[in-house]
Amino acid sequence: MQVLVVEDERRMAELLRQGLEEEGHSVVVAGNGKDGLAIAESHPFDAIVLDVMLPVMDGFTVARKLRAARNQTPILMLTARDATHDVIEGLNIGADDYLVKPFSFDVLLARLRAVSRRGAIPQPVPLQVLDLTLNPASREVMRRGRPISLTRTEYNLLELLMRRAGRVVSRENLIEAVWGFDSDVRSNTLDAFIRLLRDKVDNAEEVKLIHTVRGVGYCLRGEES
Ligand code: CA
User: Fold this and answer.
1) Is this model's pTM higher than 0.90 or not?
2) pLDDT over threshold 50, residue 225
3) Cα 31 to ligand 1 centroid, rounded to whole Å
4) Less crowded by CB within 10 Å, the N or C end of the chain?
């Protein structure tokens, strides 16, 4: 792979270069955001490792400008610890994944491999309702920057509700979409999964997003109507 590393901390940049080259990748390092953007625009890469905190132009601006120019090179963002809003902003802008510093090099390699595989297909747009975000590319879900770990079924339910945010989704539609047409899943199974989902998404929060619409189904929305 050809990897562009945009990182101003010399030691970190050199560690990344050395590690990636040992893995057989070819690496170009840029020490600030402006140079990184110029290099990314003039040369095709398989992936970009992009630090958020950069001199001259920050990582968010670099990512935003690349995506605005329809450059779809997979981006793995590096963020500081405890900067969870960074993560949401980065994913909203079009980064494909993120790593919180400090990270192990093995994890970086694995994530890089994953984002570059995903890079071949068009990136699905992250979904957001108030402070709840869901990134279909990475299947990551967060509420107020807090990562939420969901089972496959919970995730599928939430994604459907988020795609139709503000509208009521009937119980039949939810069951069909998540379990399939000829499943014999009953309404109370659906209710049980919604309860699990609420536990993870809503219960610790003041603003509830998942609403029951009696006799019809469920609705995910950010404000009272
Ligand atoms: Ca930095």
Assistant:
1) no
2) no
3) 9
4) C
